[in-house]
Amino acid sequence: MPCRTSSVGSGRLARVDAAVDTEPPTVKPHHGLEVLAVLGVSLGISALSALLTYIRAEVTVKGGIAATTATVVSGPATRYPWLDLADDLADVLNGLLPAALALVLLARVPGGPGFGIGLDRLHVGRDTLQGIGFAALIGLPGLGLVWAAHELSINASIAVVNLPDTWYRVPLLLLEAAQNGILEEVVVVGYLLTRLRQLGWSDTRALGASAVLRGTYHLYQGWGGFGGNLVMGLIFGWWFQRTRRVLPLAVAHSVIDAVSFVGYVYLHIRIAWI
Fold this sequence. Notes:
The structure is a single chain. With about 270 residues, this protein is mainly alpha-helical. The chain has helices at about 1-20, 30-40, 45-60, 80-110, 125-150, 170-200, 205-215, 225-245, 245-265, and strands spanning about 70-75, 155-160. A two-stranded parallel sheet has the order 1-2.
């Protein structure tokens, strides 16, 4: 009788030990599907739309893309400016949400401080100076490229801003510039290059894919917009792969767009090719 009791107890212990020692199978994250989903609700679908806009212009417009005008920032103009402003602010928020989604996903994998893209190492002065330096490096040659592409008839005319002349126009343009910088650099550089590396892509291949994507969602402007942003993507992506820091790039992008938007408002009447 004691032996029988001992045997039953041992069997239970064995079953408990087996349950404790057995670990659930490790599930590999589906980074490929995740990347497609993030790009599908953000800049990937923008790239498809820009490509279709370019094809439509070349097929249906006499003179092709060069005979069209591309508007970068536009907004409603009604008799209800506060409602117009609310619509514009909602559009800014809509542009920031994919970047927030990318950060949430990066916080889970790879995790760690700063979402794995250097946001834990904030040096406001240094990041701002680096950003301004990148803006000068990219912005000035980019302006020349836009002019040359338009002269070669491979780029649309750029009506950078089409917003009503209201008290909030310049602040809104600065918000739009910041939204562009945050969205594009977090998603196309920080998130995408991190995930492509985790998928086993080489740095060179990932850098090329990121830069081509950046160029493609600017293709609605023509080949000047594509080429200028492709080069920008190569420079920004190369720097990120070596530093794992995205903030100076977001600052640079925001500065470039802010100067372009506000400068256009005050200069396009005086300078014919802007």
